[in-house]
Write a structure and sequence with these properties.
Elements: H1 5-33, H2 40-46, H3 51-57, H4 61-66, H5 75-82, H6 90-105, H7 110-122, H8 126-151, H9 158-178, H10 189-201
Amino acid sequence: MTPPAGDLGLRERKKRARTDAIVDAAQRLVLERGLDAVTVEEIAEAAQISPRTFFNYFESKDDAVLGQGSLELSAEVREAFAAGGPTGLLKTDVELLVRSTLEALSGPGHDQGERVLEILQAHPGLLGRHFAWFERHKSQVVALFERRHEAAPLPADPEMCAMVVFVLARAAMDEWGRGDRHGDVGDHVPHVAEQLAAILTA
């Protein structure tokens, strides 16, 4: 039985709140004591969760520090997009895919993003983890565009299309952060998409 939409919204808010709590705890501890001196168990305790629950949100301590969660798009979203939907209009469908990506990622907010930069300066070895995470998840989105191309030819290379998804997702998160994180981050997607279109057609 499918949960009511309100329950799904509540579940998503709880997931995002717990993700934020884990990232906040990880970053605070690492900034206080250094990366090597902090354990997953200590992060979990600070976030008031169990170590087992920690791994439901992040694959490693490094990912938590960087705010890099898993990208788990639902099967419904993946299949609809790959088949040329859900609307059949590429711009609209890409915006919907970006919103779904943001819901899955629950990326770092403005304060967390600033702390990531500070931590990367102190621990440049984390850059490798960041790039590996990005490439791993980018390949999943590229595969979606490759499948869609078979159903409805794309106007650009699938890899370029996938990059647009991540650019829009990051731009929406930045805009949301500048607005003190009020409302749903996904609501900023149409606006940043319009800005990108305006840049490319100016």
